[in-house]
Amino acid sequence: MTANFITLLFRLYGAYIVAFSLLAIIITSTAFRRFDRWACWALLLGNTLAFGAAMTYDRIAGAIGPFEVSEYLGIGAIYAALAVTAPFISAKESAGGTRLPA
Fold it and tell me: Number of structural domains, the chain?
């Protein structure tokens, strides 16, 4: 029974990862390329939820090691990218600048 539970758990977790990945790919290849503001926030929220769920699972399972540290680095890179790019986007839009060509 334990092996069946673990198998189900990892299959569901894999489906969860695929669902978030497909959503991110669709948003990135459509709205994000058009510089739609909502797409930036949707990707930020989606990545935060996906990484947060993975980090929470690792803490509950007690599986914190060198590979799990990459999750913390990943979420840090996402927020660093937001910090670097967001002020420039809002400054151009508030100054009456035009959108960049796709």
Answer: 1
The gap from C-alpha 10 to its chain's centroid, in whole angstroms, comes to: 20
Please give the Cα distance from 34 to 82 (Å, whole number). 17
Q: Is residue 72 part of a domain?
A: yes
How many other C-beta atoms lie within 10 A of the C-beta of residue 53? Answer: 15
Q: Which domain holds residue 52?
A: 2-94
- Residue 67 CA to residue 23 CA, distance in Å, equals 24
* Least confident interval from 16-25, 47-56, 64-73, 92-101: 92-101
**pLDDT tens by residue, 20-65:** 889 999 999 999 888 888 888 888 888 888 888 888 888 887 877 8
In Å, what is the CA distance from 34 to each residue of 39, 60, 100?
Answer: 9, 39, 9
